[in-house]
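Ticket 4471: requesting a sanity check on a complex prediction with SN-glycerol-3-phosphate. Repro inputs:
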Amino acid sequence: MKFFIDSANLEEIQEADRLGVLDGVTTNPTLMAKTGKTFPEVAASICKFVKGPVSLEVISTECSQMVAEGEKLREFGSNVVVKIPMTTEGLKAIKILSGQGIPINTTLIFQPIQALLAAKAGATYVSPFVGRHDDIAQDGMLVVRDILQIYRHYDIQTQVLVASARHPIHILESAKMGAHVVTAPLKVIQQLARHPLTDLGLKAFLDDWQKMKK
Ligand code: G3P
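Returned structure tokens:
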């Protein structure tokens, strides 16, 4: 399973990279706005630092404008994946941009058939938002399970990118289901490495070492 960081903060991206687990980056307009910098400045610095795929999202909602914006976003680097929202206009834009060989991440997926449509239109990735489903007392991971089942039935090559992952259980379940990618904030990626028994065990080893005869 590939790990992407869901962040537009370069320091966070660099820290995830130092951990040795970083395969790519996803951003969205909210994450971009949080940086307090201009979009071109942030997008250029991320695309320069990251070797893997970087999802940059369009803010247009009409097909021809999304296509023009997507083509422009690709000028930031050949690793740019154009993030398109799951709408009927979005599907038209996915068909055109993917037809030009531009990789697409279809965002704001909340039910499995949306993911089937995005795949048929040519998306490279689909992003089911699991945490936002959980927020309204629905099990977001069930959507991931169903998308994977449908894709396996029809041997669909589109990758399931689990988004809005908020805690380690989302990541564990994604891996057990065989999701292709998970994207999560740095805090969640760091949580994955931690276990209280690891900390206690390390403390005991270091304490015992002090007791050794010098
Ligand atoms: O980038 C899309 C997604 O990961 C957003 O997550 O936590 O805002 O629902 P969240």
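Notes from triage: The domain at 2-212 is CATH 3.20.20.70 (TIM Barrel). Leaving this open until the requester confirms.
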